Structures are given as C-alpha cells and as structure tokens.
Amino acid sequence: MKPATVLAALGLAVALVATARAEVYPKESLIKADKKEAGGGKGTLVGEYAFTRDKATKDQAIKEISWLTLQPGDSIGYHKHTTNEDTYVIVSGTGTFKDKDGKDVPVKAGDVTIVRKGESHGLANTGSVPLVFVDVIAEQ
C-alpha cells in the first residue's frame, strides 16, 4: 500500500474514533440523592447517580446507573419493575436479596442480581458494614 493511502486510511480511522460517543462520569460529579424507605424498605438508601431516569432519552437502553449504599439493618423493600429491568452488582458488604419468587438469597461482594420486566425484588443489608452496590436500570 502506498504511504498516501495508509495516511488517508489512518486519517479516516482517527476521524471515526473522534466522532464516536462515550461518556465518563467522574465520581466527584455524581448526583447525590438519598431515598428514605426505598421501595417500602427501612432506613435510607444513599445514592450517587451518573444520571437519573428523567435524563435518559427514549432510545437509550440504560435509564439510570448509580452507586448505592445501605447501612446495616437498612433495606430496599420488595417491589415490582413493570417497565424496566434492574441489576445490582455487589461491591462490598453482605446482604439478602429477595428474588422474583420471594426467596431470600445471601449476597456478597462480586455477586450480580437481576430482575426482569414484570418481576419483583428487594435487598437488605444483613451484615455489620455498609452494603455497597452498583445499580443499573435498563428499559427496551
């Protein structure tokens, strides 16, 4: 291949990469919002959100993503997701996840939970340290 052709191809590749859209939400810019008795649970759900559902456009599948924390004894009540799906990625701490069938399942750092559209779930911090998890809400 001629050097001019290689340079033209590289230029096109750089232009395509430059127009690709990716987003970074630095921790210090996250939106802080706490929810008392979330989903009918106990205590306060402490949240730091990259963005909230009202900021996502219709064509974006991810509607909300956040770092959430439950203190020992606090919980998110058992609630139904009628229009979206919800995933928790447990970062630290231990707890009990109530699954779609109402069964209590122990969770710990590294575990991933998911509830599909039309299903219910809940989460309680049953440990002695904060339960920290990433929450991703998506909708088709």
Summary of the model, kept short:
By secondary structure, this protein is mainly beta. The protein has one helix at residues 3-19, and strands at 31-36, 44-51, 62-70, 75-80, 85-92, 94-98, 104-108, 112-115, 120-124, 131-138.
What would you call the shape? globular
Which sheet architecture does the biggest sheet show? 6 strands, antiparallel
Could you name the ranges where pLDDT drops below 50 across 5 or more consecutive residues?
A: 5-18
Number of continuous helical runs: 1
Estimate percent helicity. 10-25%
Q: Tell me the strand percentage band.
A: over 45%
The strand count comes to 10
Average of the residue pLDDT scores: 89
Radius of gyration over all CA atoms, rounded: 20 Å
What distance lies between the first and last C-alpha atoms, to the nearest angstrom?
45 Å
Structural class: mainly beta
Order of helices and strands, N to C? HEEEEEEEEEE
* Strand line-up in the sheet with most strands: 1-2-3-10-5-8
Task: Describe, in plain words, how this protein is organized in 3D.
The protein has one helix at 3-19; strands at residues 31-36, 44-51, 62-70, 75-80, 85-92, 94-98, 104-108, 112-115, 120-124, 131-138. With 140 residues, it is mainly β. The strands form two sheets. The chain has a six-stranded antiparallel beta sheet, with no helix packed on it. A hairpin with a 7-residue loop joins strand 1 and strand 2. Residues 5-18 have low confidence and may be disordered.
